[in-house]
Amino acid sequence: MKPKISIITLGVDDLARATRFYRDGMGLPQHDFDSNDITFFSLEGSWLALYPREKLAEDIGIADTATGTWSGMTLAHNVASKEDVDAVLKQAVSAGATLAKPAQEVFWGGYSGYFRDTEGYYWEVAYNPFEDLS
């Protein structure tokens, strides 16, 4: 696995409010992306994404427990191909992670899966055919 975090996604309760905070209040540069469901900010070497918390939990395939064991945050590691997604997920599981969601074609047109590391953090491993984030 290449030592890089491509995207940090925060599951938010109010997307418009969170977008205003990071864009207007913190001055982060918002990436021009045609969607009302997710916000991206270009950072130095990575991206910050804001996504409705319940939709993020649904994407992983877990119950959204606001006060439970899920932090509401995911880390993403983008790779150059579908085969690389499969390889990184296999590597993570071999190292002790739990496969949370097997790799599959996803609604936004890419290919991704999730693992939960040994400390309980969720990582998405993704291939994006539209933008090279690897």
From TrEMBL:
InterPro entries noted in UniProt: Glyas_Bleomycin-R_OHBP_Dase, Glyas_Fos-R_dOase_dom, VOC_core
Domain VOC: 4-128
Matching Pfam families: Glyoxalase
Stored SUPFAM superfamilies: Glyoxalase/Bleomycin resistance protein/Dihydroxybiphenyl dioxygenase
Name of this chain's protein: VOC family protein
Lineage of the species this protein comes from: Bacteria, Pseudomonadati, Pseudomonadota, Gammaproteobacteria, Oceanospirillales
